[in-house]
Amino acid sequence: MTEDTATALGTLDTHEADGLYRIITLCLHDDQSDEGDGVYAYWLVPGESYGLRHDGVTWTVAGGAWTEPGHTYRLLRNGQPTMLVPTEHGDEWLDPDHGYLTHHGPGGWELWRYNS
After folding, report:
1. Alpha carbon distance 17, 74 (integer Å)
2. With contact defined as beta carbons under 8 Å apart, do 73 and 67 qualify?
3. What's residue 2's pLDDT?
4. Rounded to an integer, what distance in angstroms lies between the CA atom of residue 79 and that of residue 66?
5. How many CA atoms lie within 13 A of 1 on its CB side?
6. What is the pLDDT of residue 34?
7. Residue 8 Cα distances to 15, 72, 94, angstroms
8. Where does the chain show beta strands of DSSP type E?
9. How far apart are CA 72 and CA 95, in angstroms?
10. CA within 13 Å, CB half, 72
11. CB 113 within 8 A of CB 100
């Protein structure tokens, strides 16, 4: 990823517990979960990157060693699909025409928008 292919948007507003991170107010829902309700609050793992893409219905998240092939992980706020993510400078609206990437950088979980 270079400045030509992606734009840094800010640092996500996160909380850490036991080495895992969550984006404040957001969670993931696994559509194909066989266990519990399929909701994951703490899902960001340092050293891994996650892609955010709009699938025409909601924002989905891919990446990370814990995800299972064939499962769709949807980004939710208060149990509903969301179009924004909280950053340290305020909410960042996600544009369905772009993909996004988040990874753990020196200052926390960074949000990048692909310039395609």
Report:
1. 21
2. yes
3. 54
4. 22
5. 17
6. 66
7. 20, 26, 13
8. 6-11, 14-17, 20-23, 26-30, 39-40, 49-54, 59-62, 73-77, 80-81, 84-87, 90-93, 100-105, 108-114
9. 19
10. 10
11. yes
Please choose, from the candidates 61, 25, 68, the residue with its C-alpha nearest in 3D space to the C-alpha of residue 44. 61
Measured between alpha carbons, how far apart are the two ends of the chain, in Å? 12
Tokens of 52: 């955010």
User: What is the tens place of the pLDDT at every residue in 73-99?
Assistant: 999 999 899 999 999 999 999 999 999
Neighbours of 52 (CB within 10 A): 21
User: pTM of the entire structure?
Assistant: 0.90
- Tell me how far apart the alpha carbons of residues 77 and 60 are, in angstroms, rounded to a whole number: 13
* DSSP-derived pairing of the beta strands 26-30 and 84-87: unpaired
| Gap between the Cα atoms of 71 and 92, Å rounded | 26
